[in-house]
Amino acid sequence: IIYLSPFPYYSFSGEKITISYNQESRFAKVTDTEGDEISSVIFFWFAWQAFYPDTFLWRKK
């Protein structure tokens, strides 16, 4: 089963991206408007927070 982002696309730094998630493989993929995959990295927030404690966390309003 593949879940697409709840919106047709997200805008990040002025670029439109789409996020899809495959529940079976537990893998997410980010693509641009042409369908080309954008490199992404999986990391754990607590590790990042330990190294960069002043990082601003974005939350949807």
TrEMBL record:
This is DUF3179 domain-containing protein. The lineage of its organism: Bacteria, Pseudomonadati, Deferribacterota, Deferribacteres, Deferribacterales. It comes from Flexistipes sinusarabici.
